Amino acid sequence: MSRAMGTLWKEIKRAPWSAQFGLLMLCCYAFAMIFAPLLAPYSEHQIVGDAYEPWGGKFLLGTDNLGRDMLTRLLFGARNTVTIAFITTCITFLLGASTGLLAATMGRWVDQLLSRTVDILMAIPILIFALLILTILGTSIPTLIIVIAVLEATPVYRLSRAVAMDVVAMDYVEVARLRGEGLVWIIFREILPNASAPLLAEFGMRFCFVFLFISALSFLGLGIQPPTADWGSMVRENATLITFGDVTPLLPAGAIALLTVSVNFIVDWFLHKTSGLRDDQ
Questions:
Q1: What is the DSSP code (8-state) at residue 207?
Q2: Radius of gyration, CA atoms only, the chain
Q3: Do 249 and 239 meet the contact criterion of CB atoms below 8 Å apart?
Q4: Residue 248, domain extent
Q5: Mean pLDDT of the 64-84 span
Q6: Contact 69/77 with Cβ under 8 angstroms?
Q7: Mean pLDDT throughout 35-59?
Q8: Residue 80: phi, psi to the nearest 5?
Q9: Is the residue at 43 inside a domain?
Q10: Rounded to an integer, what distance in angstroms lies between the CA atom of residue 195 and that of residue 205?
Q11: How many domains does the chain divide into?
Q12: Residue 23 belongs to some domain of the structure
């Protein structure tokens, strides 16, 4: 364990400043998520003052449209928004990658059926489709997670199938088939290890898309519902302050942007490491 940690630390020290910045920001976000109840001066839903109180004094970042502490809402918003986005991304990859690998391995009618289904889903604008489904089924958190996971799984299916198609054509996969290995063995022992690098990079990118998608739906009123703290809905609730020159609505928007940029920095570094390219001396 200590040797692995030492190796990881050396890799981080050799990483470019952008990746180091991204990792530092992720650690800060994780710290805020885990210790939000201890860091927040008030409870998540507590009304502690008048609406739109200025920064300073009892309220470091002022209050929102209902008189709730903005710092508290930002901390709990990190826990709610990021956690839901991460769970959704995991389900997205479980659904998209498994079906993509299955289609590439089995081929024939399985590949045709899954691919044509994905083509139909991708032909519909994703935001309009999500708004329609959420309006019909409701905006509970489980429904939100399932709907976004299904819609976002389509590009994951495309990528995993394309990568797996290249691996399936390799000799060692044919040898495994001739040995009589089963479908599960071939997928998890032969194909997946050789397709993991682009899939892991796609996981980071897909997390950004899911995170932004959830924030956009919350801004439109069909995402995470009040009184649960969420960065997208916080921008909408306090948007009127922009007309008075108050930057308070930019705080949750900035938190969204900073997390997205940080994850992209890390993904770029990971892609560079797994590509086999050397840094310029």
A1: H
A2: 22
A3: yes
A4: 77-275
A5: 90
A6: no
A7: 87
A8: -70, -55
A9: no
A10: 16
A11: 1
A12: no
